[in-house]
Amino acid sequence: MTLDIARIRKDFPILDQQVYNKPLVYLDSAASSQKTLSVLKKEEQLHLEYYGNIHRGAHFLADQATGEFEAVRDLVKDFIHAGSREEIIFTKGTTESINLVAFSFGEAFVKPGDEIIVSEMEHHANIVPWQLMAKRKGARIVKLPFTDDGRLEVEKLDALINEKTRLMAVAHVSNTLGTINPVGEIIAKAHAKEVKVLVDGAQAVKHLPVDVQALDADFYVFSAHKMYGPNGVGILYGKKELLDQMPPYQGGGEMISEVTFENTTFNEVPYKFEAGTPHITGVIAFGEAIRYLQKLGIDRIAAYENELLAYATQKMLEIPNLVIYGTQPEKSGVITFNIEGIHPFDLGTMLDKMGIAVRTGRLCADPVMDHYGVQATIRVSFAVYNTFDEIDQFIVALKKLVVMLG
Ligand code: PMP
């Protein structure tokens, strides 16, 4: 059965509007996707019917909210095929998930002189937390490079790993190049030398089926707002045996077992890492986004988005002097490009005026920009609600602008 995209678009009412008197073409879902009506309705229902603080209230509303919140933990566990619900920690986003691991893993396992390997194609969120930790612990960051066509040089990994290497940080799907990295292979190589691996799945979970146990990932992180869910909610999956050995990231309510002024004992995972009142509304509504993805089927979504990607790529390559960064066959979701002689900000601004929302700039990936020696780029990204017709509108606009600005 193929996806009925016209029907799907009705689940995202925001898409049905005009901007600057032009039909909106939203090609910026890699930055943040739009949310399904079911997510928005769940948020409203919670606030109208049974909102209360979770885990603490001995009352009806709090019990109901707690039940739904904890049910989403099970849903996430099944969605990424984690082994147990204790391994699912709610955070405020991918960025916080990585900061949590960098801090707590660093405290538990990293000594002066140790090394962390970070791929060259990472988002800043998967670079800077490691640098902060390395500075604090006297450790060092080592780069795993990528080739000009956007392939991570995995064959160099064995030579980079030594007895000082503690962890490797790598994106499952690059937010700039779109490359789907062979994370299973990377993890196997790292584990052969007892190195742990954190996989940044922010761009992967909505496009690919993810099985953290099959991958054998030690940590897998992502954000709800990139997968049709609310913003302000992130996930950290971590193997329980590691989480158990890591100290808390933040202190406060819920993460404790007992507190005196002399000493505090900590709660079990996942609560040890969930200090304070979490984003109750966001997590509960996130459940609806996961149900939506499951209803459509990740495989079918992936197949459709791959068709959009291939179609857009082929049309864009017909435009003279257009350069695409990242041309791997194993690619998903995004096309980052420039047109020689035209400033990407000019192009982005003009596209916006024509109703087409794209991302311009350095895409939170300075090392990728430096790799290609460019100041800025333009990125279009696709979600299940985009259509071939929208891509045609984008290509027509691009061709017009090449004539105007070129
Ligand atoms: N990693 C990748 C690959 C991303 O694309 C993003 C979001 N652009 C992040 C991390 C950061 O996610 P968030 O802003 O939701 O914390």
UniProtKB/TrEMBL annotation:
UniProt catalytic activity: (sulfur carrier)-H + L-cysteine = (sulfur carrier)-SH + L-alanine
GO molecular function, one term: cysteine desulfurase activity
Protein name per UniProt: Probable cysteine desulfurase
EC number: 2.8.1.7
Co-factor requirement: pyridoxal 5'-phosphate
Keyword Transferase recorded: yes
Alphabetized UniProt keyword annotations: Pyridoxal phosphate, Transferase
Main enzyme class: transferase
Organism: Sunxiuqinia dokdonensis
GO biological process: cysteine metabolic process
Similarity remark: Belongs to the class-V pyridoxal-phosphate-dependent aminotransferase family. Csd subfamily.
Cited function: Catalyzes the removal of elemental sulfur and selenium atoms from L-cysteine, L-cystine, L-selenocysteine, and L-selenocystine to produce L-alanine.
